[in-house]
Design a protein that fits this description.
Elements lengths: L6 H7 L12 E3 L5 E3 H17 L18 E4 L6 E4 L12 H13 L18 E3 L4 E3 L1 H7 L10 E3 L19 E3 L4 E3 L1 H5 L7 E3 H109 L4 H16 L22 H9 L17 E5 L4 E4 L12 E7 L6 E6 L3 E4 L7 E10 L2 E2 L6 E4 L18 E2 L3 E3 L4 E3 L2 E3 L2 E2 L6 E5 L7 E6 L2
Antiparallel strand pairs: 1-2, 3-4, 5-6, 5-7, 8-9, 8-10, 11-12, 12-15, 13-14, 13-16, 16-17, 16-18, 19-22, 20-21, 22-23, 24-25
């Protein structure tokens, strides 16, 4: 062994006694020793689980109390002295050993980021091979010398940093965690199994991990499948959104074009009515203007004559006054010499008759916005009847989504699973003939309207009835068989009849294949219904 102050002692002093690796964020314990922060968290979680077990036995496992939400303690892996963990702060509240962290960092820098060979007594080379079982790193020569024989040859090894280091028991730091306690749901070592986990149901850690891995992979596959389903649904929603935007643009254009035509028609009618009113007004105004001009002319003439007669009447000449009287009488007789109409020659009022109320009611009902889509997915078809060579199936109409369903498509698949169309029409039932007896088939249906075809329904699993291997020749009747030929079908090879066996008649109108038997007490054997 090296001396107490040798290089190996220095390297050992910079290793955590729990994980056997160089310290990572070392925290100070009450005893003065240090452990990695991660190792302290692991020890605290085991202490909580041990307390949860209590004197009456183990309790269901709970999440590790790494946050320190209640009083707990951890034991030093070097001297076993307990260190209280403050409630609420957890191990993160323990003081960081910054001096030790600096020493570890300087040591790494001195090695240029490399680890020295663990065979420090006779080797000063840098380590480049790591043994997972020994938890040591060697140069190539030292590793070959140590691991070339015996059980050492089976140790897992690899380049430094690439080998998974075994997880060590926080209660027994020198023991590897090789078992898993199924009662407490935590990994344990062999000593724990014989001590605090005595009598518990345990399993090999690696075996339990493989089983868990298979379950995790199964769940991951299911999650992947659900993710694909959700992705498909999201793509369908995106496609529908794009289609909605597209159809909205089309509908908007149609609305604008239609109402533009309505506006154009209304504007044309407005112009025509205004023109008609203007023409009528012009004609009437012309007549009134002519009447007014004639009346004004005659009015001027009469005013002039009246003034002349008045002047004459004020004259002192008697003869002139007498003559003026005669002139005035003549003037009265000729007061309307042109025979003018004194009342207006036309009605000056224009009346408008517009049926706008009906037009407004019509405008309110000009159109409506409806949504149309391809039909919904039909429900699973129903089997009405299954015979030897015939199946009758029916289905219900799905939601037409605003557009009437015009037809249905029924498809059939047999053993190879490939579907082919056997019916297209608007009926909700169909009978398939010419099938093979005792054969499984699949049936599915979809609906169509002007917007397209719906997805196919789920496939109906059905089977034709079992039929005979061959038909019975009715012309060769066994003497012990009484046949009632009530109904004859398909010539002489397929009958509906009643076979009487002693006092046990077969159901009427039922077809059987009959094989004669030499036994007198059992003169016939019914082996199957005839198709």
């Amino acid at each position: 062994m090296a001396s107490q102050g040798g290089p190996d002692a220095r390297a050992e002093s910079m290793q955590c006694k729990l994980c056997c690796n160089p310290f990572e964020k070392p925290v100070l314990l009450d005893c003065g020793h240090s452990v990695c922060l991660r190792c302290a968290e692991m020890m605290l979680s085991y202490d909580v689980i041990r307390k949860d077990a209590g004197p009456s036995g183990p309790k269901p496992a709970s999440p590790p109390n790494v946050g320190g939400n209640r009083d707990s303690q951890i034991s030093c892996p070097t001297c076993s002295m307990p260190t209280a963990v403050p409630a609420g702060g957890g191990v993160s509240s323990l003081r960081l050993n910054r001096d030790l962290e600096e020493v570890v960092s300087q040591h790494r820098n001195e090695l240029g980021g490399k680890i020295k060979c663990s065979n420090v007594e006779s080797c000063a080379n840098a380590a480049n091979v790591e043994c997972a079982k020994c938890q040591l790193a060697f140069c190539n020569d030292c590793f070959a010398a140590v691991h070339a024989f015996g059980p050492f040859k089976t140790h897992e090894s690899g380049p430094v940093g690439s080998v998974r280091k075994p997880s060590m028991c926080p209660v027994h730091p020198t023991k590897e965690l090789e078992l898993y306690c199924l009662d407490d749901n935590q990994p344990v070592c062999n000593l724990c199994e014989r001590d605090r986990h005595k009598g518990h149901d345990t399993a090999v850690l690696s075996t339990h991990a493989e089983a868990s891995r298979a379950a995790v992979l199964k769940i991951a596959a299911e999650l992947q499948q659900r993710s694909g389903t959700m992705r498909s649904a999201a793509e369908a929603v995106n496609a529908m959104s794009a289609e909605l935007t597209k159809t909205y643009g089309t509908v908007e254009q149609q609305i604008n074009e239609s109402f533009e035509r309505v506006r154009a028609a209304l504007a044309a009618r407005q112009a025509a009515l205004l023109n008609d009113a203007n023409l009528i007004r012009g004609d009437k105004v012309a007549k009134l203007d002519a009447q007014r001009a004639a009346l004004e002319r005659v009015t001027t003439q009469l005013a002039t004559l009246a003034a002349t007669v008045s002047d004459t009447a004020r004259s002192t000449d008697a003869v002139a006054v007498i003559d003026a009287l005669a002139a005035a009488q003549a003037m009265l007789e000729r007061s309307n010499p042109e025979g003018l109409q004194l009342e207006p020659v036309t009605n000056a009022r224009l009346c408008l008759k517009l049926e706008v109320d009906e037009l407004i009611r019509t405008a309110a009902a000009i159109g409506s916005i409806i949504t149309k889509a391809m039909p919904g997915t039909p429900a699973l078809p129903k089997l009405k009847e299954a015979l030897f060579s015939r199946l009758q199936v029916e289905w219900t109409a799905p939601d037409d989504n605003g557009d009437a369903i015009t037809s249905y498509t029924l498809q059939l698949a047999s053993g190879d699973g490939s579907f082919s169309t056997i019916y297209s029409g608007n009926s909700l039932t169909f009978s398939i003939s010419g099938l093979t007896p005792c054969t499984s088939y699949q049936l599915r249906v979809c609906a169509q309207n002007s917007m397209g075809a719906s997805p196919f329904s789920d496939a109906l699993e059905c089977q034709t009835a079992a039929g005979p291997s061959s038909l019975w020749d009715a012309t060769n009747c066994h003497p012990h068989v009484a046949i009632d030929h009530n109904i004859v079908r398909n010539g002489s090879t397929d009958y509906a009849w009643k076979a009487v066996l002693g006092v046990m008649p077969c159901p009427a109108a039922t077809c059987f294949r009959i094989v004669a038997s030499p036994l007198t007490n059992n003169p016939l054997i019914m082996v199957g219904l005839v198709s």
